[in-house]
# Entry
Amino acid sequence: MHLVPQTHWLDPVIYRQKMLETVTAALPRQIKIVAVNFAQGTASSYWLLRREAAGEVAWLTLRIANHPLWLKHACQLSILWAAPNYQRLRQQLQHQFKRTASALPFFKLAVTDAALLYLLLIAEQNQLVYFVQLPKAIAARHKGRQLDLAADFMSLPLFMGNRNNANILLQPVQNAVLQRYLARFYGQNLLFSQFKNHRLLALLPTNQWVQPLLQQDFKGLNWRQLIAQTYGPAFWQQYRQLCYTAKQHLNIR
# Structure
């Protein structure tokens, strides 16, 4: 088996260029790369792919890494790639994309999905993000133990607060519909996570993905009205009040 020289593996510029070439060459014609995130310090990468066929748009999260994903029931196509062999990676990808479309975890976004993504972006501009509080057993392992998005996640306490300091403005949020959306977005890598104090896991929008996604298919959406209709006036009022308080805090600081 031919391995890429170690210098290619260690040089981030060469590594990323090789990855872009490899993934692009492996994709079917109707699937395009919209965005990609390369993890710092590891060989993990996440790819947002867009497929347009018969006038319908679908999205796919592709994860390429040398270790298993810690999220169970995530909506991703995960490729385990232990050695820096780009030819082998291309073959793995081509094998996956030869499967029928229904066998791949493509997802579509409704206007209610897009409305919540707009809310998450605007909230982050005000330094506000959602948090879940992990059980001690999971928090202590720091991704060493799986988090089940279909079971564990839905039972976790949910909060909204300051993204940089979880002790500021932290308020509980009780909305099962919202929590299901957040679990799904997290599993699709539309949200990424950061571990905080007190077993809190911050859920932040993956801006490099969400922004082009919304611009391509949901530009000009009346997201505020959809949020109020979907989650109710009490939720909308709490969100607006938190944004107002966050702006006041930023001005004071």
